[in-house]
Amino acid sequence: MKRENTVPASRVPATTITAGRATWFVVLLGIVSLFADMTYEGARGIIGPYLALLGASATVVGVVAGLGELLGYALRLVSGRLADRTGRYWLVTICGYLVNLLAVPLLALTGHWQYAVLLMFAERVGKALRSPPRDAMLSFAGKTMGRGWGFALHEAMDQTGATIGPLLMAGVIAWKNGHILQDYQFGFGLLLIPAVLSLGTLGLARVLFPNPRDLERRTPELDVCGFAKPFWLYLAATACVAAGFADYPLIAYHFQARAVVDGGWIPFFYALAMAVDGGAALVFGAVYDRRGMGVLIAALLAGVLAAPLLFLGGFDSAVCGVVLWGVGMGAQESVMKAVVAAMSPVARRGSAFGIFNMSFGVFWFAGSALMGVLYDVSIPALVAFSVVVQLLAVPLMLLVMRRHRASTDEGHDVK
Questions:
Q1: What does the alpha-carbon distance between residue 396 and residue 392 come to, in Å, rounded to a whole number?
Q2: 360 lies in the same domain as 260
Q3: How confident is the model at residue 270 (pLDDT cuts 50, 70, 90)?
């Protein structure tokens, strides 16, 4: 196969590899993600009631949501390997965004819940296709500007869209009253605007940066055939985080079922969490570039404290819990990805992100399903599970830090 982005590092003019140029690339991809998140996060806020209006049962909605997430994460391994094997990071990313974003406004044309479900699956498949190669390209720029800051800046812009989208759709549905099918179809149709803006910005980024691997200053790589032991230990640690971190739909269900929060506040709590996510990502990213992986321990402890506050307290406790939940999310989307890039060779960067995303997603799904079962049995048991499993990640993360530091001292780091 013909390879894309194969300009040797030795031929890349030194003047082209600057922090400013790398930052501009990250900002462009951040704008892409901002509009993309407005599109599909806006849709996720109203898809449940829409499926109900189409005649789907609660069981269908729950199963479809879970399977969609599982499918979306499992396929990331395939996408990452495909990008590495062909070198066509841009092609795989663009195809993924096309499927991911255009499936959302097409929901406005569906008249049966079965077709809507197929489009929901298509949206998740598109996200699975584009995530690993896009993260790999971000990591190339991050080597020059600071990986923590690169992923943090992108995450902050991403979460800006994730905050605006649901609020926009909530406003539209309130304005239209949201009592008939056409009100929701109008909302989905409106999401074509940010989808087009996202794809247009993506095309501009492709034109301005045809070879994103050139943004990373290359160093000799001693091992490009596999991943070192610290990488696999890191996967185990992040799997514990994923399994024990409560999903927001379950949190929202608890708020509604136990009348902890008035129903009208629930989407605003989610918007608050997304805003905290973006701000926390910027802080964690900057600290990571200066202090290293130790910042992840602080982020892990924030996630551990979130569950007791969210599920065992009242309104004030819920506010604090949502803030800490957003802090944990900010670390997951910034520093955790930066560490993946630091532990993987350039030639296998897409595969590394594919493996990481698949592992994180599978354990997130399994943990969420178990916590859903535990909720019906005993809320304290759910909280205990969340706390214990996430705390297991702390000694594993400390071991990763020690092993990774040792490999760096021996000259085997693959940054």
A1: 7
A2: yes
A3: confident
Rounded CA gap, 263 and 252, in Å? 9
In a 13 Å sphere around the CA of 146, the CA atoms on its Cβ side amount to 19
d(CA 397, CA 211) in angstroms, rounded, equals 34
CA distances from 148 to 288, 305, 340, 396 (A): 6, 24, 11, 21
Residue range of the domain that includes 113: 1-218
Last residue of a domain, one of 200, 218, 236: 218
User: How many domains does the structure of the chain reveal?
Assistant: 2
Tell me the two tokens of residue 175: 């304005």
- Based on the domain organization, do 210 and 226 belong to the same domain? no
Let me know whether 261 and 170 are in one domain. no
CATH at residue 187: 1.20.1250.20
Distance CA 249, CA 334 (A): 22
Looking at the structure, tell me whether residues 213 and 247 fall in a common domain: no
Crossing angle of the two packed helices 349-377 and 379-409, in degrees rounded to 10: 160
Length of the chain measured in residues: 415
Structure tokens at 224: 């490009």
Instruction: Record the pTM.
Output: 0.79
| Cα angle 275, 278, 283; round to 5 | 125
What is the pLDDT averaged over residues 265-285? Answer: 86
CA–CA separation, 244 vs 388, rounded Å? 8
Domain end point (choices 218, 246, 271) = 218
Instruction: Assign 408 a pLDDT band (cuts: 50, 70, 90).
Output: low
